[in-house]
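Write out this protein's structure.
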Amino acid sequence: MLSRIPKSTRIWIAFASVYVLWGSTYSAIHVAGELLPTPVVAATRSLLTATIIAAICRLRRKSLRVPPGEGWKLALVGLLFMSSNNMLLVLGEKMVPSGFASLIVSTMPIMIALLEMLLHRLGHGGEPLNARGWAGTLLGMAGIAVLVSPSLHGQTPAGASRPVLGVLVLLGAAFSFAVGSVLSRRFRFQADTLVATGWQIGTAGIFNTLVALLGAGLLGGPAAHLHWTWHGFAAIVYLSVFGSLFGLVAFTYLLQNVAVTKVSTYAFVNPAIAVLLGVVLLHERVARSEVLGMAVIVCGVAMVIYSRVQRLPPERAAAR
C-alpha cells in the first residue's frame, strides 16, 4: 500500500513522524522511568516492538532474512540506538525534567558533524568542518553551559535531582545515537526497512532483557519487586508503537533516502515539542536559562547542519 504513495510524500510522512513522535516520547520516557527501573523500561519497550514487527512480517509473508553480512551490522546499530541510547536516556530523565533532557539530546547533530570530521581526518571518508560548522559547535557547547550554569551555582532546576550528572548521561545517550546514525548511513543496508528495524530492535530487546535480569531480577533488585501501573504500561506501549516502531522505521527510511544532515533537522523540532508537552502534561516549569539555552543550542545545531549541507553540490547532497 505504501509503495503506491509517491516517494516525495513518503519522505514528508517520515519526517513528520520523526519530528512529532520522537518529540512526544520524552514525556512518555519520563513517566515510564519514574515508575519502572531503567533496564525494564528499555527491555519491555524493545521486546514489544520487535514482537509487533515480527507479527507484521508474518502477516505480510515477509521473510526476516537479511543479506549476508548485514546481520551483525544491524545488531550493532540496534544496540547503539535502542540499548545504549535508550537506557541512558531513561536514566537521564530520572535526574532532569523531560524538556530539559530533550535540549541536551538535541546536540546530537553536532556530534555527528564532529564524528564526520574525525573520519575525514583519519582518511575514512567523512566531511571536514568549516568555520561556520566550528562556530555552530562552539555555540552548541555554550548553550549546554547556559543550561548547566545555574546548577553549578547551587540553583537546581525545578524537577531536577542531579542536573550535572543527568547532563553527562544524556550527552552519552546523544553520542551513542550519533555513532549509530553515522554507521547506519555508511553500512548502506540492503534489507527491507521494516525487517532491518526488526533486527535492530530485536537485538536490543534481547540485550536489554539480559541487563534487566542480570542487573536486577536475578540479584533481587528493583525488577524483582515490580509494581506495574496503567500509566507505566501505557507509556511503554506508546514508546513501543509510536517511538520505536513508527519512529525508528521512519528514521531508518530517511537515512536510506535522504542526506543525514537533513534527517538531523528533527533536532530543531523535537525540543520544542518535548518542552511544550512537558509543561502541559507533566506540569514542568521552564526557567529563563532553559529558554535561552534552547535558543542557543538550536542556533548552534542549525549552523552546523546548514554549513555541511550548503558545502555539498546539489547532486551529491541528494545522493547521500
